[in-house]
Amino acid sequence: MTVAPPADSTEHTGGRPVAPSGWLGWVTSTDHKRIGLLTAGTSLVMFLLMGVLALLMRSQLAQPDLHVVNPDTFSQLFTIHGSGMIYMVFSPFALGMGIYLVPLQIGAPGIAAPRLTLLGYWLYVLGALLMLSGFATPNGAHASGWFSYPPLADKAHSPGIGSDLWIAGVLLATTGVIIMGWTVLWTVLRRRSRGMTMLRLPVFCWSMIASCLMVIGAFPALLAALGLLAVGRADASVFASNTWNIGYQHLFWFYGHPVVYVMFFPYLAAVAEVLAVFSGRRFFGYKGTALSLLVFAALSMSVWGHHMFTTGQAANDYYSLTSIALLVPAGVEYFGMVGTILGGRIRFRTPMLFALAFIPQFLIGGVTGIMVGTPVIDYHVTDSYFVVAHLHYVLFAGSAFGLFAAVYYWFPKVTGAMLDERLGRLHFWLLVIGTNLTFLPMFGLGYLGMPRRVATYATFDGFAWLNLLASIGAGFLAVGISVFVVNVLWTLRTVALGRAENAGDNPWRAHTLEWATSSPPPRLNFAADRPLPPVTSFAPLLDLRERQADRAVTAPGQEEASGS
Q1: CA distance 336 to 287
Q2: What angle (nearest 5°) sits at the alpha carbon of residue 220, between those of residues 214 and 221?
Q3: What is the three-class DSSP state of 506?
Q4: Is residue 20 very low, low, confident or very high in pLDDT (cuts 50, 70, 90)?
Q5: Are the C-beta atoms of residues 403 and 93 closer than 8 Å to each other?
Q6: How far is the C-alpha of 397 from the C-alpha of 58, rounded, in Å?
């Protein structure tokens, strides 16, 4: 029987105090894996909460003239739902994956500036709590949309402390994400193991480089916009001039377009890793994809004005041209994904199912993005449900499917156990049905003229049957997410009780370095008695297996020659 040393013990630790155990050890840990799991776990909890708000909205819109919630509450719901998904779910989860995986994938013992990374996490948590606390105020939560244009969001039109809490919460959470972006970028650039050159980085690491560059380059613009909004709420004369109203929009969308790519680059790269592993091949077009991610990131900060075509304050020709130019790097990435699976020995496990569904669904979001980046179409569909459908095909039909592919793929790395395959497949099919049944009708609603951000509509508008389909689809999504939650909680319970079947260190026969260590990894990632394999490409474990296979083939011939 062994007894753990007390918390103040320094024995066997080189004179350093032992880190606290239990929940205190988790919330104060400087282990990048724990910080990454805290960030991703908090994001998933926020994902569930934002999903509940979405179900309330779809219940209200299922039929004409319903009164499930009043119009003011509906405005609060869509504001916090949109803000939560963008500021508190997809961006932080992407950074959480980077915090956990990047040091492992580059062979580093930890993340750069771990205490700073932990500070970023707690700023994010505090920001989320502040934003949600608006519901407890007398006037309710903020209700001016996730973009909160002035003068709608000033003190006169959005009174109450809920709006002030929203500003403070988004500002703190965004500051935390910026800090985490800095430490992940610092890690991948400066802490790579021997042999891990830049052109041997996994595709996921390249996605994190591109994402972190956008976080550092574009996210401060949101802080400036929020500062301007806070000043305008204190002094109403600030937004009396249209200069500052339009200036706010320029600042906001300089953040608002790159954040979309922060919310899909890491998930696209997770899909790329899954496609390669479950096709039994290297990722096709590796160098082109790495370059396209950087080009995509640069272009992302040149297209923000296409969100402002209808203001008359944006150069239509320039922003339309740069928006269409995004097709080039996007095409390179799609070419790489399709080229990877063609001719591969495909294994249809749950991560692969989500990765394969990501490709056509995200394509719908990308193509409709080019449509709304074209002024003549944007004038017709702006502020309609067409834009809602486009955004959700990017962030749910696309990024969320990449997120679930990542969770099912890396879950055995994190816990040492596999999620249940049957529940995973049920979750997948419910999400495929629910996603397309919910969001595809919204394109039709938008083209027929239904405006977004309305709490109800009349019977004679002709929107009823499409809205009913969308609300039924939301029910499928709710059941699918419930299956996922049950799968995760049940598996974690079996792990905690010691009843889970050991999945092995590399159950998928994966290609990258995180699978070269134990599952879950030790405190410093790689044990001294288990040295890293030589890094000879962006798929070092695949290289190792190929070398072993070559030796196995040549060995019998050598023995026969020596015997003769």
Answers
A1: 10
A2: 95
A3: coil
A4: confident
A5: yes
A6: 17
pLDDT tens-place string over residues 343-393: 899 999 999 999 999 999 999 999 999 999 999 999 999 999 999 999 999
- What percent of the chain lies above the pLDDT cut of 70? 95
* Residue 396 DSSP code: I
Pull the structure tokens for residue 216: 């550092």
Instruction: Name the DSSP letter for residue 383.
Output: T
Total length of the chain = 564
In b/e form, how buried is each residue of 315-331, taking b as 16+ CB within 10 angstroms? Answer: ebeebbebbeebeebbe
Q: How far apart are the first and last CA of the chain?
A: 57
pLDDT of residue 552: 83
Contacts for 132-138: CB closer than 8 Å, 24+ residues apart: 132/49, 132/80, 132/84, 132/169, 133/165, 133/169, 134/76, 134/80, 134/161, 134/162, 134/163, 134/165, 134/166, 134/169, 135/76, 135/80, 135/162, 137/161, 137/162, 137/165
Task: Give the three-class secondary structure for 142.
Answer: coil
Distance CA 458, CA 320 (A): 35
Residue 14, pLDDT score: 47
pLDDT in tens, 85-135: 999 999 999 999 999 999 999 999 999 999 999 999 999 999 999 999 999
Contacts of 234 (CB under 8 A, 6+ apart): 155
Q: Decide if 111 contacts 184 (C-beta within 8 A).
A: yes
**Cα gap 75→78, rounded to integer Å:** 5
- Say how far apart CA 206 and CA 238 lie, in whole Å: 42
What is the band of 21 on the pLDDT scale with cuts at 50, 70, 90? confident
Which residues, at least 6 apart from 548, have a Cβ–Cβ distance to it below 8 Å?
none
| Confidence category of residue 555, pLDDT binned at 50, 70, 90 | low
Percent of residues, the chain, with pLDDT higher than 90 = 89
Here the tokens at position 265 are 């680059």
Q: Alpha-carbon distance 469 to 389, whole Å?
A: 13
Burial track 241-273 (b if 16+ CB lie within 10 A, e otherwise): eeebbbbbbbbbbbbbbbbbbbbbbbbbbbbbb
Give phi and psi for 384, each to the nearest 5: -115, 175
Note the pLDDT of residue 19: 64
Q: Which H, E and C letters describe 398-414, residue by residue? A: HHHHHHHHHHHHHHHHH
CB-based contacts of 496, cutoff 8 Å, min separation 6 = none
Identify the DSSP state of 144.
S
- Provide the mean pLDDT of the chain: 93
User: What is the value of pTM for the model shown?
Assistant: 0.94
CA dist., res. 259 & res. 57, Å (int): 24
Separation between Cα atoms, residue 312 and residue 305, nearest integer Å? 10
Does the pLDDT at position 450 exceed 50? yes
